[in-house]
Amino acid sequence: MSGKKSLEIRCNCCGRQLKTENGMLLEDAFEGGKEWGYFSRKDLEVHSFVLCEDCCDRIAGSFVIPVQVSKKREVM
């Protein structure tokens, strides 16, 4: 048994475990985060979540105003 802790990332929506190998995520996911401020009911709380691509697509597909999509020309 190695001393390396395995990385486990789950989609907060469907609960599916995302694919990882040797501590590296092998599929892309949406990572959301929000530091709530004084004008909210969650004053000074920090929320974060992960969505798999399928859940992200399903949720974004239900928006009244569609998600704005643009293409990148190069990857840094």
Q: Tell me about the biggest sheet?
A: 2 strands, antiparallel
Distance between the termini: 36 Å
Strand order within the widest sheet?
1-2
* Shape designation: extended
Number of separate helices: 1
Oligomer: single chain
Mean pLDDT: 92
What portion of the residues fall into strands of 2 or more residues?
15-25%
Can you write the helix and strand succession as a string?
EEEEH
User: What is the tally of beta strands?
Assistant: 4
Q: Helicity range of the residues?
A: 10-25%
**Coarse structural class:** alpha+beta
C-alpha Rg (nearest Å): 16 Å
Q: Which regions contain 5 or more consecutive residues with pLDDT less than 50? A: none
Keywords:
24% strand; 76 residues; two-stranded antiparallel sheet; two-stranded antiparallel ribbon; alpha+beta
Explained architecture:
There is one protein chain. The protein is built from one helix and four strands, in the order E-E-E-E-H. It is of the alpha+beta class and 76 residues long. A hairpin with a 2-residue loop joins strand 1 and strand 2. The longest helix has 9 residues.
